């Protein structure tokens, strides 16, 4: 199955709901690529021995990896963490997540600053480019298990919006001019 993405409404209702516009306004993989988002579909059942994942990690230089299970029983301060993940922010490095189980959403900004919701589920490996404004939330299942990948040492710092003064943000915005 392909990745599903759509423009979302501005409702303050539970962030874990889909928030699709009526009528739905889907966003294609091609449109996501133009925003710098990359996606691979892998077999999460064999992630420990998957040659495709190994090749991808080698090709992209993803040298660091850990696994996080986001659920109220496994993540200390679950509700506080969810609020923090849902704050609009950017990173100075790419954000690389491989969903091993469960479901969640990444929301990203398009060129006109509108929110796009990307639904990720088991087998989705997604990269958000350094400098893109985004946020993360669970869906109504309240469970996801994800591999976090990094080039080199992990950097956990999120730069909350506004963060337009960062070189990486300016570089990202400049990269959109050509697409």
Question: How would you portray this structure in words?
Answer:
- This protein has 179 residues and is α+β, with helices and mostly antiparallel strands.
- The chain has a single domain (4-177), classed as Jelly Rolls (Sandwich).
- The longest helix is centred in the C-terminal third of the chain and has 11 residues, at 167-177.
- The strands form two sheets. Strands 1, 2, 3, 5, 6, 7, 8 and 9 form an eight-stranded antiparallel β-sheet that branches. The chain has a two-stranded antiparallel ribbon with strand order 4-10.
- 20% of the residues lie in helices and 32% in strands.
Q: Give the % helix.
A: 10-25%
User: What would you say the CATH architecture is?
Assistant: Sandwich
> Which structural class do the helices and strands define?
alpha+beta
Number of helical elements: 4
Largest sheet: 8 strands, antiparallel
Please give the radius of gyration in angstroms: 16 Å
Compute the separation of the termini in Å.
26 Å
Poorly predicted regions are: none
Tally of extended strands? 10
Fourth-level CATH superfamily: Jelly Rolls
Give the tally of structural domains. Answer: 1
Q: Which whole number gives the mean pLDDT? A: 96
SSE succession: EHEHEHEEEEEEEH
Q: Beta fraction of the residues?
A: 25-35%
Q: What is the CATH topology assignment?
A: Jelly Rolls
Keywords: Amino-acid biosynthesis, Cell membrane, Cytoplasm, Dioxygenase, Iron, Membrane, Metal-binding, Methionine biosynthesis, Nickel, Nucleus, Oxidoreductase
Binding site for Ni(2+): 89, 91, 95, 134
Membrane topology: Peripheral membrane protein
Subunit structure: Monomer.
């Amino acid at each position: 199955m392909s990745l599903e993405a759509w423009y979302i409404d501005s409702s303050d209702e539970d962030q874990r709901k889909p928030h699709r516009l009526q009528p739905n306004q889907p966003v294609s993989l091609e449109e996501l690529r133009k925003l710098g988002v990359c996606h691979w579909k892998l077999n999460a059942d064999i992630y420990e021995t998957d040659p495709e994942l190994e090749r991808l990690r080698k090709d992209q230089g993803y040298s660091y990896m850990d696994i996080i299970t986001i659920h109220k029983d496994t993540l200390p301060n679950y509700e506080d963490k969810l609020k923090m993940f849902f704050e609009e922010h950017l990173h100075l490095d790419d954000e690389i997540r491989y969903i091993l189980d469960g479901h969640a959403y990444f929301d990203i900004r398009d060129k006109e600053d509108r929110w796009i919701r990307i639904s990720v589920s088991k087998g989705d490996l997604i990269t958000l480019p350094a400098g893109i404004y985004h946020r993360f939330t669970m869906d109504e299942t309240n469970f996801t298990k994800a591999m976090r990948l990094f080039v080199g040492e992990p950097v956990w710092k999120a730069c909350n919006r506004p963060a337009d003064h960062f070189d990486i943000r300016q570089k990202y915005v400049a990269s959109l001019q050509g697409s």
